[in-house]
Amino acid sequence: NNTFATCSTDKMIFVCKLGEDQPLKRFIGHSDEVNAIKWDPSGSLLASCSDDKTAKIWSLKQETRLHDFVGHSREIYTIKWSPTGSLTNNPNTPLILASASFDATIKLWDPEPGKCVHTLTAHNDPVYSVAFSPNGEYLASGSFDKCLHIWSVKDGKLVQTYEGGGGIFEVCWNKDGDKVAACFSNNTVCVIDFVSGKPI
Q1: Closest CA to 82 of 105, 110, 54
Q2: How do residues 106-145 score in pLDDT, each as one tens digit?
Q3: SS3 190
């Protein structure tokens, strides 16, 4: 694949091709800087999030957005697609988009109808990172409240919590889905065993 997408403080999203001087697509719709963009597993949908408190889904097949996700009360810092749906190892599980916001919540969106299916509300400070487990059944989230939370994607319930010694900037699952790593603002990295909920 020789195409890639970029986002910027100029509120624009460009889809570009290596070797070409001009973008293949220009997506215009956000009213403030765009913080993150992510392709879905099939590479056909591009999600974006912004300081304008919205997340949007775009398609290369059209100029305007497919969906406009509104519901957060503050900036959306990052987004992640679930490793589910067509062309994944979990084809029978619906595709989900997670959005993490400075309003201390995470929202799970179903991109098919364009609806919010769950709002996850256990954090007390901005959420900087979210990560789906390899099977798409769980979502890990990290916040500046020092907490790593793990949620059930199916029902939106909190299933596990680990509190560290600083704000969390990134969370990540291992390939087997039985361990979660988090990096903290106190210069530490911690790996949590998903079964026991304790550091390794």
Answers
A1: 110
A2: 999 999 999 999 999 999 999 999 999 999 999 999 999 9
A3: strand
Contact 147/106 with Cβ under 8 angstroms? no
Give the C-alpha separation, 81 to 29, whole Å. Answer: 20
Beta-strand ranges (E) seen in 52-157 are 54-59, 67-70, 76-81, 97-101, 106-110, 115-120, 127-132, 138-143, 147-152
Indicate yes or no: pTM above 0.85. Answer: yes
Specify the amino acid at residue 94: P
What tokens does 69 get?
A: 């996700």
CA atoms within 13 A on the CB side of 122: 19
Determine the Cα–Cα distance for residues 116 and 71; give it in Å rounded to an integer.
9
Question: Which region holds residue 87: left if phi is over 0, alpha if psi is between -120 and 50, else beta?
Answer: left
State the Cα–Cα distance between residues 81 and 96, nearest whole angstrom. Answer: 6
Long-range contacts, stretch 60-63, CB < 8 angstroms, 24+ apart: 60/15, 60/24, 60/25, 63/25, 63/27
Location of structure tokens 């409240």: 145
Answer left, alpha or beta for residue 153, where phi above 0 means left and psi between -120 and 50 means alpha.
alpha
